């Protein structure tokens, strides 16, 4: 069934550039028909579905379409059934069964896509506002609540006075209230669930946000008798946080998975139909080279944001995705990527398809920056790379999808990485200092590297210094197996270097990194504290268990572009 595309007064329908409101698009703009997502969700009978795709690939529009389709409308509210009767959902096989669900459920709808806050207090206030607004949208439920604590809690959340604990339990509470009032289980829709976690990780209130989300999401969607179905979207599948692990009815559909793959982004047939409608069929080769090439579960997809902008701009090819929020997650990582990734990224621009470490599970956020497999997985999830073929044994062949992303790579990655690599001349000197066990030389060259390669403001957080040291040591992978943030003894060490079997004449190495809180801190004392922590937490336990007796231990402290090292060897 072709979507309804009627010209008005001889004019073509407007292109919905920058719009995500499905009802408005369906009524007034050219609308690519994605309504079969509804059929596929109902047919799959999922408890909670999480769809992870790059930003600007239609996730918000899809969530709003689901809201429009399922939501039970009150007297006087707009009847949208007509918008669906001209779409594929009303004309596919079994359409009567699927259309019977139209307008039958209360819907909880929350979007976190713009949740960026510099601190926990402001983030909490944003949550109070958005959750309070959704409660107020459903305040008719108060009529069905008995007088007392529950009614008071509902009113407090509506009026943004709720405590953190009450707000954390609010999603489940609202679902229960809706079920009680409407005698129908609600559908829960959450757009960009991971955006608040990403902002929290960047701005230093990660633990508070994770604790909140651990209560908030499972509260409504873990085997909840009051919920018909839950659908969430995001860029990343963040595992090991305890946020999603509590949802034992969760099904995750990433860019590696085949189901639902055609519902986010544009298929080639959809782009061809759009090109015919706007009388630009001759432009298909150009559109394909610039905006095609994404691989979602083995299905070839186009970037919808860029395709729409291309037609809007009278078919002028540009990297329209470059300056969108699609790139926010990457920006803070660009100058902190391990230096041995530069050559790999350069090879991608030459059209090569390197095989790289890969994982389908990201997280926790604070460790994404330090693991090579999660860095590449982040690039795939965010839309910068596409997997070529299947992931096997934790490795996958990758490629740049198209000309637009090649341009983005040049602008967002390599230009910045080349600037960072201006300090590469120090790396050989650092290697020599390391092998000579000269902590003074090591410190000298790290500080010189900082002076030549990083801005003062970048050189401020512990995660940055951790990544810096890890990146500078990555060139020694021929000698060492390098690991980061792994459990050993009574905690997690920062970095260890374990000699490869053929190089057991080299010492094993443990490095603990700390960053001072202000410039008055005693860096020597802080380095000594980091060195002591290695022994106190018994970080050497895993190395000793493997038979290593020659272990070099470093405590490394930083402030700005200054550093101190406390070091000794441990031989058993």
Describe the structure concisely for a colleague.
The protein has 572 residues and is an alpha/beta fold.
List keywords for this structure.
572 residues; alpha/beta; Rossmann fold; 4 domains; five-stranded parallel β-sheet; five-stranded mixed β-sheet; 17 strands; 15% strand; globular
Secondary structure tally: strands:
17
Strand line-up in the sheet with most strands: 2-3-4-1-5
Characterize the main sheet.
5 strands, parallel
Domains, number? 4
What coarse outline follows from CA principal-axis ratios? Answer: globular
Strand-residue fraction? 15-25%
CATH hierarchy, class of the largest domain? Alpha Beta
What is the CATH architecture descriptor of the largest domain?
A: 3-Layer(aba) Sandwich
List low-confidence stretches. Answer: none
How much helicity do the residues have?
Answer: 40-55%
Q: Tell me the structural class.
A: alpha/beta
Count of individual helical segments:
24
- Rg value: 27 Å
CATH level 3 topology of the largest domain: Rossmann fold
User: How many angstroms separate the termini?
Assistant: 75 Å
How is this structure best described in words?
The strands form five sheets. Strands 2-3-4-1-5 form a five-stranded parallel beta sheet, with helices on both faces. Strands 11-14-15-16-17 form a five-stranded mixed beta sheet. It is globular, with a radius of gyration of 27 Å. The chain folds into four domains: 34-70 and 84-253, Rossmann fold (3-Layer(aba) Sandwich), CATH 3.40.50; 265-312, no CATH class; 325-420, no CATH class; 437-571, tt1808, chain A (Alpha-Beta Complex), CATH 3.90.1570. It is built from 24 helices and 17 strands. By secondary structure, it is of the alpha/beta class. The mean pLDDT is 84.
């Amino acid at each position: 069934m072709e979507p309804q595309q009627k010209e008005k007064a001889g004019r073509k329908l407007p292109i919905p550039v920058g719009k995500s409101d499905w009802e408005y698009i369906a009524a007034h703009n050219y609308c690519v028909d994605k309504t079969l997502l509804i059929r596929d969700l109902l047919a799959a009978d999922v408890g909670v579905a999480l769809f992870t795709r790059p930003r600007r690939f239609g996730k918000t529009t899809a969530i709003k379409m689901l809201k429009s389709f399922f939501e039970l409308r009150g007297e006087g509210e707009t009847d949208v059934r007509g918008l669906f009767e001209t779409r594929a959902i009303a004309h596919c096989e079994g359409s009567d069964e699927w259309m019977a669900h139209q307008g039958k459920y209360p819907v909880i709808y929350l979007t976190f896509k713009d949740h960026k806050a510099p601190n926990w207090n402001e983030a909490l206030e944003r949550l109070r506002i958005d959750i309070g607004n959704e409660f107020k949208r459903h305040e008719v439920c108060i009529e069905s609540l008995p007088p007392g604590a529950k009614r008071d809690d509902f009113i407090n959340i509506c009026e943004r006075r709720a405590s953190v604990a009450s707000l954390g339990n609010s999603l489940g509470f609202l679902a229960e209230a809706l079920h009680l009032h409407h005698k129908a289980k609600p559908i829960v829709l959450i757009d960009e669930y991971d955006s608040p976690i990403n902002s929290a990780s960047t701005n230093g209130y990660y633990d508070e946000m994770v604790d909140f989300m651990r209560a908030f999401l499972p509260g409504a969607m873990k085997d909840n008798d009051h919920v018909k179905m839950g659908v969430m979207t995001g860029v990343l599948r963040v595992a090991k946080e305890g946020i999603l692990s509590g949802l034992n009815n969760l099904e995750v559909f990433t860019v590696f998975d085949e189901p639902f793959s055609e519902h986010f982004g544009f298929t080639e047939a959809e782009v061809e139909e759009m090109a015919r409608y706007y009388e630009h069929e001759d432009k298909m080769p150009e559109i394909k080279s610039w905006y095609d090439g994404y691989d979602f579960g083995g299905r070839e997809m186009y970037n919808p944001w860029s395709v729409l902008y291309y037609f809007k701009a009278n078919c002028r090819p540009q990297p329209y995705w470059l300056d969108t929020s699609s790139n926010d997650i990457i920006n803070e990582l660009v100058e902190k990527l391990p230096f041995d990734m530069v050559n790999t990224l350069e090879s991608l621009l030459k059209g090569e398809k390197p095989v790289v470490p890969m994982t389908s599970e990201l997280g926790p956020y604070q460790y994404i920056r330090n693991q090579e497999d999660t860095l590449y997985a982040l690039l795939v999830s965010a839309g910068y790379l596409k997997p070529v073929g299947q992931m096997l044994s934790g490795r996958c062949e990758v490629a740049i999808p198209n000309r637009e992303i090649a341009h983005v790579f040049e602008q967002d990655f390599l230009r910045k990485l080349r600037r960072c690599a201006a300090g590469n001349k120090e790396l050989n000197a650092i290697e020599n200092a390391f092998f000579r066990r000269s902590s003074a030389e090591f410190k000298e060259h790290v500080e010189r590297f900082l002076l030549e390669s990083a801005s003062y403001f970048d050189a401020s957080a512990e995660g940055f210094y951790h990544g810096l040291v890890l990146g500078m040591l990555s060139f020694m992978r021929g000698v060492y197996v390098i690991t980061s943030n792994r459990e050993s003894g009574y905690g997690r060490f920062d970095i260890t270097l374990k000699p490869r079997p053929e190089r057991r004449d080299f010492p094993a190495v443990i490095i603990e990194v700390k960053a001072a809180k202000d410039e008055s801190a005693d860096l020597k004392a802080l380095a000594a504290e980091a060195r002591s922590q290695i022994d106190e937490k018994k970080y050497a336990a895993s190395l000793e268990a493997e038979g290593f007796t020659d272990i070099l231990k470093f405590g490394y402290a930083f402030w700005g572009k200054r550093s101190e090292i406390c070091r000794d060897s441990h031989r058993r």
